[in-house]
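Subject: design request, 238 residues
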């Protein structure tokens, strides 16, 4: 997977993408990160940003700057579709399903907005897909880009252990999963809090049932939306 990031803040990368399993995947070229500094593309005597036509606060990244940055990219390999992504709260909500789709892509170009955003004509001209990572407002696209890259790259086979991937797969296949059950490690007693005895019983079936019951209870109380999907998927399966 080749990921190109267009940003006003190139120093923000690779950041957390350069450590642990993702850092290793980066070293081993499982994915590549090319970071392009948008400041290099301001036109002579012009700024990278401009005020919004029609008035309003803040500044927008200008179409001319962005056009020059996009034009500097090598042409896409004809055998792979280039996916152009722009992060904004207006986009479709990012999900595990979306991460699976992008984990199978080979050429991803990410444009990180800043200030109040960018000139909309860029999104239209280059057919950017707009993605939001949640219903809240960030200062720019960099953090969203990192969340997107991490969630997608960890699904590339071999990046994390097969065990984790398999759990993931069941999550996506049903698109109606439960939230995770609570986990404990040693010591068995800590600050008057004990590990639930069933987890120490050695009875694998009892452990499986306890975890399922916990996952169901947590999902039902914390995420009624996921719980409804889960119940519907169980009903459909019978
Ligand atoms: N940029 C600003 N807020 C954002 C969000 N919630 N998701 C993606 N990109 C953003």
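Subject: RE: design request

Done. Sequence follows.
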């Amino acid at each position: 997977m080749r990921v190109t990031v267009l940003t006003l803040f190139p120093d923000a990368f690779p950041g957390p993408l350069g450590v642990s399993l993702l850092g290793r995947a980066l070293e081993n070229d499982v994915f590549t990160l090319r970071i392009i500094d948008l400041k290099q593309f301001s036109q002579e005597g012009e700024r990278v940003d401009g005020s919004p036509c029609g008035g309003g606060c803040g500044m927008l990244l200008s179409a001319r700057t962005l056009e020059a940055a996009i034009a500097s990219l090598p042409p896409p390999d004809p055998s792979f579709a280039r996916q152009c992504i722009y992060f904004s709260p207006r986009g479709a909500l990012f999900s595990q399903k979306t991460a699976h789709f992008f984990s199978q892509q080979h050429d991803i170009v990410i444009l990180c907005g800043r200030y109040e955003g960018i000139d909309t004509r860029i999104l239209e001209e280059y057919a950017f897909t707009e993605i939001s990572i949640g219903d809240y407002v960030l200062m720019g696209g960099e953090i969203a880009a990192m969340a997107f890259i991490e969630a997608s790259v960890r699904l590339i086979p071999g990046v994390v252990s097969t065990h984790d991937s398999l759990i993931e797969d069941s999550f996506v296949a049903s698109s109606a999963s439960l939230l995770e059950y609570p986990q404990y490690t040693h010591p068995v007693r800590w600050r008057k809090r004990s590990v639930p005895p069933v987890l120490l019983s050695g009875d694998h079936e009892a452990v499986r049932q306890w975890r399922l019951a916990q996952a169901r209870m947590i999902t039902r109380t914390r995420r009624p939306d996921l719980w409804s999907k889960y119940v519907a998927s169980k009903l459909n399966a019978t």
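The chain has two domains: 2-153, 168-237.
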